[in-house]
Amino acid sequence: MLVEGQLTYLYCVADREPKIKEIEESENNLYFVCHNELYAVVGKVEQSEFDEEGLKKSMADLEWVKTNATLHERIIEQIMTNTCVIPFKFGTLFNTDDSLKAMLNEYGEEFKAILGRLENKEEWGVKIYCDTEKLKAFSINDEPEILKIENEINSCSPGKAFFLKRGKTELLAQVVNRKINESGQESFDLLKELSFEARINKLLPKEVTERDDEMILNSAFLVSEDEVSDFINMVDALKVHYENKGFFIDCTGPWPPYNFCGLSKQKVQNV
Amino acid sequence: MYNVVTKSKDVTLLEILDRVLDKGVVISGDAVISVADVDLIYLGLKVLLSSVETMEQLRGAPITGPMQEAR
Predict the structure, then answer these.
(1) Nearest residue of A to residue B62 by CA position?
(2) Could B21 and A90 be called an inter-chain contact, meaning their C-beta atoms sit closer than 8 Å?
(3) pLDDT mean across residues, chain A
(4) Burial class (CB within 10 angstroms; exposed 0-12, middle 13-18, buried 19+) of A66
(5) List of chain B residues whose C-beta atoms are within 8 Å of the C-beta of residue A229
(6) Closest Cβ–Cβ partner in B2, B36, B70 for A55
(7) Most A CBs within 10 Å: which of B16, B19, B71, as the mutation test of the A interface?
(8) For A224-240, how does the pLDDT look when each residue is reduced to its tens digit (9 = 90+)?
(9) A151 to each of A120, A156, A168, A170, B39, how far by Cα in Å?
(10) What's the CA angle centered on A144, arms A138 and A148, to 5 degrees?
(11) A268 φ, ψ (degrees, to nearest 5)
């Protein structure tokens, strides 16, 4: 299919025939290209919006990004309801279906290996946030060392109290820091135990999360379908344990396996 | 206890963008004509998620924050 002024946009690759017809979003003329025993789910998009120049302009448009990123996600989610998929990054484009087929030739074996590994597994995301003020308040009553200084402050001279207070503030900051690290690490380790693979991703700053509390863990897990209920039970247990101490645990899924379908580094370098 | 199960209709835009703009398979080579590059993406992500007020504060701030790198 070659249409003047249009590009082929790749959403995902599957190894079973995807049920395109059942997909609500048909405005992008969704179809699949079957080649080398693989199915690439694609759509036609306007070159003016998606070529290198166009994309620069498009990405600066809030509504455009919102609409198209959400569409990208929704289409892949619907495909993955009946087949395992390799999700591609937003904005993966080809001039023609033939250039897409060439790519399926080049990467075919690796895609098949990845799909084999992903079979019967789901990606789950866990982000943990911390309200440090709340954690501080909790820690004051929780740490014997701090309680001890507190008692001394109440019974000593004003001069000594001044220095003790300063020491208390420093100690409290250390304790809070330690608790943040421990909580993030412990949560990640426990969930990793129930996963096939696990990843820690970049923390997102407050400007991006638009939350008042700080993100302290951004992680993704590849979980076997039959272990998902255990995984979720563990998340619930962590919530019970941590949420009264100033932490907030946000668990979402199942996601397309964005975090677990990396190509081998060598392959990428060779291209 | 499956109350955490969510789909794209329910999750925040941030969750979606954190994945579709930053993760997923990236391929390169002659066949591919364009993949939105990472700098652009972070910029896009920030611009997108910032209200007009915070955008002013962000101007001049580094694009990448202090972060734990993926292992």
Answers:
(1) A205
(2) yes
(3) 89
(4) middle
(5) 2
(6) B36
(7) B19
(8) 999 999 999 999 999 99
(9) 57, 9, 11, 17, 52
(10) 110
(11) -60, -40
Is residue B46 within 8 angstroms of chain A, CB to CB? Answer: yes
Look at A127-131, A177-181, A206-210, A215-219 and tell me which has the smallest mean pLDDT.
A206-210
Q: Is A246 helix (H, G, I), strand (E, B) or coil?
A: coil
> Are B70 and A220 spatial neighbours (Cβ–Cβ below 8 Å)?
no
CB of B56 less than 8 A from some CB of A: no
Is A100 within 8 Å of chain B by CB? Answer: yes
A 18-37 residues inside an 8 A Cβ radius of B: none
- Compute the residue count for chain A: 271
Which of B1, B4, B58 best probes binding to A when mutated, by most A CB atoms within 10 angstroms? B4
Prediction pTM value: 0.82
Is the pLDDT at A195 greater than 80? The verdict is: yes
**One-letter amino acid for residue A92 of the chain:** T
C-beta separation of A87 from A74 below 8 A: no
* CA distance, residue A46 to nearest chain B CA (Å): 13
Q: For position B59, what pLDDT does the model report?
A: 45
Tokens of A232: 């979720």
Query: What strands, in cross-sheet order, belong to the sheet with A247-255?
Result: A197-200, A214-224, A121-130, A247-255
User: Cis bond leading into A254, ω under 30°?
Assistant: yes
* Distance separating alpha carbons of residues A167 and A146, to the nearest angstrom: 9
